[in-house]
């Protein structure tokens, strides 16, 4: 296991950053790293108790972060929270659309309500948070939107119909948004992740009866052979958000330990 990546102090000094699904996993690691690098961070999610615990944890480290309860499937809720953040800070600089949910079902096993929940969370949430954030990114003179996708957009497995569909759509939507908003100096990219050691991935592994490091994909020597830690994904996300990635636009930025190398 590699040593934990070092953050870069003040790389996002006073930049206003929204991270959805910030209570745990990739979202928590990403929101934490932005705060460590000087950003004014707003984590969004449904689980108030867990979010407030993170706020206290960060305060214990000398860092102030904010957590807003928000149902990322509901337009009115998102508009209220995002508008409040944008107006309070005279703009927004970075948006990370990370919130997601997983469902282990084939098409004929999936109910309409289950399908709608996955697509609303994983895709509609990206659309709505971006929709309400873009005017505030424009107000700043540009910025970055990063939408978290998955290797399932490219090489999927059995019984992940709704999830694979949603993540494939996130990649396509990100590319299309890049075309529309590069003129506003808003860089839009997707980050495509492989297996990550999170609660959602653990549930996935249990559902298929396989180890976390082998979530249904073939293993060979060209692949790293382990799940990522959330901080490794956070390091990639903050790179794509930073000025170091100023020429990265409309890209599916892949962080997967080599899972897709043989496509």
Structure overview:
42% of the residues lie in helices and 15% in strands. It has one domain: Rossmann fold, CATH 3.40.50.720. The two termini are 26 Å apart. Strands 3-2-1-4-5-6-7 form a 7-stranded parallel β-sheet, with helices on both faces. The relative contact order is 0.15. It is built from 7 helices and 7 strands. It is globular, with a radius of gyration of 17 Å. Helix 2 (48-60) links the parallel strand 2 and strand 3. It is of the alpha/beta class and 263 residues long. Helix 3 packs parallel to helix 4 (112-139) and helix 4 runs parallel beside helix 5 (161-181). The chain has helices at residues 25-36, 48-60, 75-89, 112-139, 161-181, 199-208, 230-241, and strands spanning 16-20, 40-45, 66-69, 94-97, 143-150, 186-193, 252-255.
Oligomer: single chain
Q: Kindly name the structural category.
A: alpha/beta
What is the architecture at the second tier of CATH?
A: 3-Layer(aba) Sandwich
Could you describe the largest sheet, including whether it forms a barrel?
A: 7 strands, parallel
Give the overall shape, derived from the CA principal axes.
globular
Could you state the CATH homologous superfamily? NAD(P)-binding Rossmann-like Domain
- Work out the strand percent: 5-15%
Tally of strands: 7
Determine Rg (CA atoms, Å): 17 Å
